[in-house]
Amino acid sequence: MKSKSLNQSTVLLMAISAAIVVANINYIQPIEAEIAQQFNLANAVVGAVAMITQLGYAFGLLLIVPMGDIVNRRTLIMRLLILAIISALLAYLAPNIWIYAIASLLIGITSVAPQVIIPYAGFLAPTGQRGRVLGNVLSGLLVGVLLSRTVSGVLASYLPWQTVYLIAAVMIGLLWLVLWRKLPRDPRPTPTVSYRTMIKTVPKLVKQYPVLRASAVNGFVLFGVSNIFWATLVFYLQHQYGWGSREAGLLALLGVTGVLAAPLIGRLADIFKPRTIIGLGLVLSTIAYVVFGLWATHIWGLVLGIIILDLGTQFGQVANQARIQSIDPKASSRFNSVFMFGYFLGGAMGSFFGNLLWGLAGWTGVCGLAVVVLVCGFYAHFVHYPHVLKRQATSLNQ
C-alpha cells in the first residue's frame, strides 16, 4: 500500500531539495586553485579549509540531525535552510581566508537538511518500497554533489568564484518557498524526550547495533576515497594536462552514471542483502583506483575511473542507508546521524590527506593513500564485522 503522504511528486521534491542543499559543501572542490591564488595561499591551506567544511557537516550530523527524532522534522528542515542561506551569503562576502573559513564551517554545519529529509522519506515510505524511495532521494543527493562540482568549476572559469555562493543562496531561498507549501507535515506526535536525553542515547545505539558501526566505518572508507580523488583532481589536471576548474567541473558530470544507477541499487538492496551490495561498492572503488594509478595519464583512463568510482560510492551509500533505516523507525534520525558522521568524517580526512599526499608524493601518493584506506575497508567489512556478529550470536546462545 502506498503512503498517502509520500507520492511520486513528494519523493521528487525531497530529491531536489537534497540536491540543492548538499551542493553547498562541495562547491569548494573545483575552485580550490582560484581561492589559493586570490588569497595567496598554498594548496594545502585551501585543502584544510575544504576539510573544515566537511568537518562542520560531520558535526552538524552528530549534533543537529538527531533532533529529527524529537522535534517536528518539517520545522527543523525549514529552519536549517534559512541558516544555510545566511552561511552561503557570508562566503560570498568573505574579504579574507579567515572569514571564508568561518563561512565554510557554518556552511558545513547548516547544510545537513538532506540528512533530516532522508530518514523522513524512509519513515513515510511503505516498508516494501523503502529501498526504492531512499534510492530515489539519494539520487538527488548525488545529483547535488555532481552538479555542485560542475556548476562551481564552470562558473569560476568565467566569473569570480564568490558568485557560486550568491547563486547558492538564491536557489535555497527559492527552495524554501516551495517546501513551505509542499513538504508533508510530520505525522508523528511531538515526543517529550529532551535534547540532552536524546543525545545521550546515541553512544548507546552505536554500542548496541554492530550493523550501525559497520555502516559508519564503511561510509568513512568509501566517501573518504571519493574525496581523496575529487579534492586533488584539479591539481592533477593542471599538472598533467594544463587544465583548470572548468575541466574539473565538466568531468564531474560523469557521475551521472551513479545518479542513474541509484534507483536500481535501491531495488537491489530490497532484494539482496545490503551487505552484499556494500561489498560490491568496495570492489568497484578499488578497481577505480587501479585505473587511476595505471591510466590516468590518458583522458579515457580518468573518464573510466570516475564512472567506476561514483558507482562504488553510490553502491555503498544506498545499501548502507537501506540497512540502517530498517533497524528502528523511532531512532531513524539518530541512525542516519551516526552513519553520515562517519561518512563525512571520512570525506573530511580524504580532502585533507589527499591534498597533503599530493604535495608530498604527487598522483602516486594520492592513489597509494586511497588503496591503503580501501584495504582497511575490506578488512572491516569482510573480516572484522563477521567476527563481531559471530561473537554476538555466540553470547546470545550461551
From TrEMBL:
GO terms for cellular component: plasma membrane. GO terms for molecular function: transmembrane transporter activity. It comes from the Bacteria. It is a multi-pass membrane protein. Residues 10-389 form the Major facilitator superfamily (MFS) profile domain. Keywords: Membrane, Transmembrane, Transmembrane helix, Transport. InterPro entries: MFS (IPR011701), MFS_dom (IPR020846), MFS_trans_sf (IPR036259). It is found in: Cell membrane. The keyword DNA damage does not apply. Its main location: membrane. The chain crosses the membrane at residues 12-29, 41-64, 76-93, 99-121, 133-152, 158-179, 216-236, 248-265, 277-296, 302-322, 334-354, 360-382. This is Transport protein [Lactobacillus plantarum JDM1].
